[in-house]
Specification:
Blueprint: E1 7-11, H1 18-29, E2 32-35, H2 36-50, H3 57-65, E3 69-73, E4 79-83, E5 86-87, H4 95-104, H5 108-119, E6 127-131, H6 134-138, E7 144-149, H7 152-165, H8 172-188, E8 201-204, H9 210-223
Parallel strand pairs: 1-6, 1-7, 2-6, 7-8
Antiparallel strand pairs: 3-4, 4-5
Helix pairs in contact: 1-9, 2-4, 3-5, 7-8
The structure holds 2'-deoxycytidine-5'-monophosphate.
């Protein structure tokens, strides 16, 4: 029974470091990894490719249900994401796709079309699931639920350094505004809003390094006999 396979969920807003931490945690435990945000990003990209409007809920839900997407390992723990056979690992990470993902993620029919696809990642020996509603909706029976946050300013600063490093021309103040607007949309939506599960462990990463966050999660996992 898949319900016997342990799940650790890591939810929180973008820039909290959850993607990096969840990847490292999965690698350390030797477990499977679900990047649920990537599914919403892939859907936004597929919509653009197929000329589906980002508010056409019915067509988006049917696109989500039939999405030809594959996640494959590519050495050193890196994952390659294929949409209809095309490598989209890089292109789903841009700001436009991120904004589109946030819009499609607000649609109830889209979320339910992607639900089973996310549950299917629960495979032996265990799963680390990264997202916004992993602990509240998709895996409510997870053995450990972490809600990772950081201040909007710190998250914007991290994103700023990341984009600068790629040579992009970015403005810190507008990044802070964008992050606040995204938070507002993600926390205020009626379906599966971004909020900690009642039984989640809350962690604020504003003043912590990735290693420190990982260490705390591993000690919570050990207390539950998961690590
Ligand atoms: O984590 P991310 O930035 O890749 O997520 C992209 C968008 O998808 C984000 O705006 C919120 C949404 N999302 C969601 O609604 N539920 C999830 N489980 C994961 C992401």
């Amino acid at each position: 029974m898949s319900a016997e396979i342990s799940v650790i969920t890591i939810d929180g807003p973008s820039g909290s470091g959850k993607g990096t931490v969840a990847t490292l945690l999965a690698r350390q435990l030797g477990w499977n990894f679900l990047d649920s945000g990537a599914l919403y990003r892939i859907l936004a990209l597929a919509a653009e490719k197929h000329g589906v409007a980002l508010d056409d809920e019915v067509r988006l839900a049917s696109l989500a249900a039939s999405l030809d997407v594959r996640f494959g390992a590519e050495g050193e723990g890196a994952t390659v994401i294929l949409l209809e056979g095309e490598n989209v690992s890089e292109s789903i990470r841009n700001e436009t796709v991120g904004a589109g993902a946030s819009r499609v993620a607000a649609l109830p029919q889209v979320r339910s079309a992607l639900l089973q696809r996310q549950k299917d990642f629960r495979m032996s020996p265990g799963l680390v699931a990264d997202g916004r509603d992993m602990g509240t909706v998709v895996f409510p029976d997870a053995r450990l639920k972490v809600f990772l946050t950081a201040s909007a300013e710190e998250r914007a600063r991290r994103r700023f350094l990341q984009l600068k490093g790629k040579g992009d021309d970015v403005n810190l103040a507008s990044l802070i505004d964008e992050i606040r607007a995204r938070d507002e949309r993600d926390t205020q939506r009626t379906v599966a809003p971004l909020k900690p599960a009642d039984d989640a462990v809350l962690l604020d990463s504003t003043a912590l390094t990735i290693e420190q966050v990982l260490e705390r999660i591993l000690s919570e996992a050990a207390r539950r006999d998961l690590a």
